Automatic annotation (TrEMBL):
Gene3D superfamilies: Aldolase class I
Organism expressing this protein natively: Mycena venus
Name the record gives this protein: Nitronate monooxygenase
GO molecular function, one term: monooxygenase activity
Membrane-traversing stretches: none
Keyword set, alphabetical order: Monooxygenase, Oxidoreductase
UniProt key word Ion transport: no
Pfam families found in the cross-reference section: NMO
Classification of source organism: Eukaryota, Fungi, Dikarya, Basidiomycota, Agaricomycotina
Source taxon at top rank: Eukaryota
Amino acid sequence: MTVAAVWFAFGVDLDKYVDQVHAYNTRTGRKTFIFVNLSSVEDARRAALKGVDAVVVQAILREFETSGSPLVVAAGGISTGARIASLLTMGVDGVVLGTRFLFTPECTYTAAKKDALLCADLKPLSARWRTMKSAAQMDGLRIAIDVPFQSDGRP
């Protein structure tokens, strides 16, 4: 089986892993598509210089150039068709939905975790972090759904 794509997110030393995929591609003559999920403009620019195929950006879209290479994929609290359309209009190459699927019957989250999400303000991430009150709400939500503190998605 051939791996078509890899997705790196919120880790340390991502450059090392991107380099390993590039080395694998060179060694095998294959092309493994590299996605890197980031939450700062600096990290997104560094990933672009490393030759990744797509940067997945959360809460920093307005600050990041959306034309050229790598592809720009928007993520973070996207839960409606209208939001998808607005992001595509802004020039992103694609969107990733995650939060939206937490409300499906297939999701293994407990009822308490789903209730915490339903009570949260699920605006796009960029809008969530505009106030300290919103940040405190997200901290509480992150604790309720077991997201590691080092992965807070803040710009």
